[in-house]
Design brief:
With 184 residues, the protein is an alpha/beta fold. It contains five helices and eleven strands. The strands form two sheets. It has an eight-stranded mixed sheet with strand order 3-2-6-5-4-8-9-10, covered by helices on one side. A three-stranded antiparallel sheet has the order 1-11-7. The longest helix has 11 residues. The two termini are 20 Å apart.
Length: 184
């Protein structure tokens, strides 16, 4: 496991890169499918990373709290040949076992992770209703899987945005396993 932090590739105000990816529901999902939501949270994640596993309940909490105003899209960009735990079929199993209700998409060719500048799992990006980046960073302040949460960073920033309050600190790096890139 290689531990990495988020990197500032997309900057505040950058437009969300488009995507067209298959979801665990076997349908194709596109960025425009989420146009009716006030906010969009794109999270690069996978099945096997302990840092992601530790955040699933927190992500589900965000989904349950804001699902009428916020779309959550999980994207798995890991090389599923080298890391079979991150295969499409295992994504479906993980979603069922962890009660994931948000869309979970497979970036098999890894192009979307590259467009977003995603480096680790989890690597969350929060966009406003114009699909401009307003926050890139952690779900909460529990940076290791065993840490206790004292600040629900993403929830705070979602609430600020929904109430028209500007997010001042728009980049607070997440930490997790490196995205598992395909060998060239």
């Amino acid at each position: 496991m290689v531990l990495l932090g988020s990197e500032l590739i997309l900057t505040k105000g950058s437009t969300a890169p488009d995507f067209s990816l298959v979801g665990i529901d076997d349908r194709i999902h596109k960025l425009n499918d989420y146009a009716d939501y006030d906010l969009l949270l794109v999270i690069f994640m996978c099945n096997h990373c302990p840092y992601v596993q530790a955040k699933i309940d927190a992500i589900n909490e965000i989904y349950n709290k804001f699902s009428n105003k916020l779309a959550i899209v999980g994207i798995n960009s890991n090389d599923s040949v080298q890391y079979i735990d991150d295969s499409f079929e295992n994504m479906k199993k993980t979603a069922k076992n962890r009660n994931i209700k948000f869309d979970y998409l497979f970036d098999e060719n890894q192009e979307i992770a590259i467009k977003y500048g995603a480096k680790c799992t989890p690597d969350p990006f929060l966009f406003d209703n114009n699909r401009k980046l307003i926050f890139h960073g952690r779900i909460d302040d529990a940076m290791k899987p065993e840490d206790k949460v004292t600040e629900k960073t993403m929830i705070i920033n979602i609430e600020k945005s929904l109430h028209g309050i500007k997010i001042i600190n728009d980049f607070v790096p997440s930490i997790g396993c490196s995205i598992k890139w395909k060998k060239q």
